[in-house]
Design goal:
Blueprint (H helix, E strand, L loop, with lengths): L25 E3 L6 E3 L6 E2 L11 E4 L9 E5 L5 E4 L2 E4 L3 E5 L2 E6 L2 E6 L15 E4 L8 E4 L2 H12 L24 E7 L8 E7 L16
Antiparallel strand pairs: 1-2, 3-5, 4-5, 6-7, 8-9, 9-10, 11-12, 13-14
Length: 220
């Protein structure tokens, strides 16, 4: 549907503003009249249905035929990447979670872990080091167990029936938080030293994220 570019006055807008998908803010339409959902990267646009200017998107009419709308694209043919419904500009650094930092580059993105993956060897002052999740902190930390605690864990490892001091219980692992690239899966389980219900997380990746196509078609 092609909207007329002549704005009507006074404005006649719905009583309830539309509910926008994630990553699409409420903005005024091209007439400055009613609130609409801003169009995102690659979505159709025209005079009335404007693009998300907070993401530096403009309505590109370069590949549209006369009388039709355009497509939301970056200014100056700039590439970007979209993660979990949010668009990042080329060169932008962002954090999908506190444990990962990503860099948007050439339509794709690379991520590095922010938590140290160091290995702590036993020392006289810490003969039994163990990495644990600390409530309120993002990255796990090393702790030093006492010898009797270490021997108890070894005994449970040798005897499967003594592995946990209570009946084991856990939910299924959730679906990955990301449809592509690195994400997290969670479950609730009592399989820990204290037999307490806790939320456990693990990394997951269903498939690598495809690179976005170039903003404008190449000119032969």
């Amino acid at each position: 549907q092609v909207c007329a570019q002549l704005c009507r006055r006074p404005c006649y807008c719905p009583w309830v503003p539309p509910r926008c998908p994630r990553g699409s803010p409420l903005v005024l339409d091209g007439c400055g009249c009613c609130k609409i959902c801003a169009r995102r990267l690659g979505e159709p646009c025209d005079f009335l249905h404007v693009c998300d200017q907070s993401q530096a998107l403009v309505c590109d009419y370069s590949s549209a035929s006369a009388g039709t709308g355009g497509t939301c694209n970056f200014e100056d043919d700039e590439e970007g990447c979209e993660v979990n419904g949010r668009v990042y500009r080329d060169g932008e650094v962002f954090q999908p979670s506190c444990k990962i930092q990503c860099h948007c580059l050439d339509g794709g993105f690379n991520c590095i872990p922010l938590c140290q993956e160091d290995v702590r060897l036993p020392t006289p002052d810490c003969p039994y080091p163990r990495r644990v999740e600390i409530p309120g902190k993002c990255c796990p930390e090393w702790i030093c167990e006492a010898q009797d605690q270490h021997l108890l864990r070894d005994a449970r490892a040798v005897s499967p029936q003594l592995r946990y001091p209570c009946q084991e219980w856990s939910t299924e692992w959730s679906t990955c938080s990301a449809t592509c690239g690195l994400g997290f899966a969670t479950r609730v389980s009592n399989q820990n030293r204290y037999c307490r219900l806790e939320t456990q997380r693990r990394l997951c990746m269903l498939s690598p994220c495809p690179a976005l196509p170039a903003a404008f078609p190449a000119v032969s």
